[in-house]
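FAQ: What does the model actually see?

It sees only this:
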Amino acid sequence: MKKISTYLYMPHEIEIEQVSENKIKIFAYPFQSGFAITVAHPLRRLLYGSSAGYAVTSLKIDGVSHEFDSIKGMLEDVSLFILNLKKIRFKIKNDSKKVEANFSFSGDKDIKGSDLENDDLEVVTPDFHLATINEDSELNFTLIIEKGIGYIPSEELRDNVPEDYIGIDAFFTPVKKAIYSIENMLVEDDPTYEKIVFEIETDGQISPVQAFKESIEALNDQIAIFGKALDIDVSSPEDDFDNSVDMKKLLQSVNDMNLSARSFNCLDRAEIRYIAELSMMSELELKGLKNLGKKSFEEITSKLQAMGFPVGTQFDEEFLKALNKNIQEQKAQLEEG
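And it is asked to produce this:
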């Protein structure tokens, strides 16, 4: 039987699994039914659209006037050279948003991404093939590399391309893959709660954790406009407990802390039902609970600290009054149920 609730359940668990250097999985849970996709879908869009990266926007090759030309002594024609160039991913070493770099190669050589590194540029795909030239060839070219977000086709960059340069489609985003799945999970005998599993892979320009962080910041910035219009504080409440988000977290059941059976049973016997009740206790009061050993004490205090509500948390009088009222209401609902 579904219980009547007066607040939105707040997810409080997040795990990050490092699959490889540039690939991670993120698990976030538990969400109320239907809310996982509400969070996951915009974050996926922002992962592709808000993370800044670097791309070649213009190319000039000595003796070449257009992208369908060819170069004496080079195995690849210019169009294939450009396709290979797009696969090579750069990072600008300083804080510049734009770098112009000159390169010159001659003699029998297999040119790779690593050959394009210099004082201004780092190549994060050093093994990617660019071109093969023979002993009679001389290849001189200039790249303009810029920082940006998303994807911009060369047609839209035409006004920014210098004379004698070839414009190149700019795929700035460093995120190669951003997918999510939603799984059902059991919370307090309710199997309709949800878990988000993100899989994020980058090309090495930034880490997948950094890309995920930037997407969250972008989402917060986009939503903040509504807060400004309606005079709502949507800033991060690190030290401010007088807000609805913290209220919802504090009113979660201690069962949601995923404690060991020994720790949970001790709290259950003491009739401590909510995270708020735990966080308001002093260390002395918590240690004084019957049958609560040292390991259980350390487990509980560690979990509370990670949630942002360490043992002995102080709340202002108005917030504390509202918190206690909600606790009593929820306990009354449980008794009636």
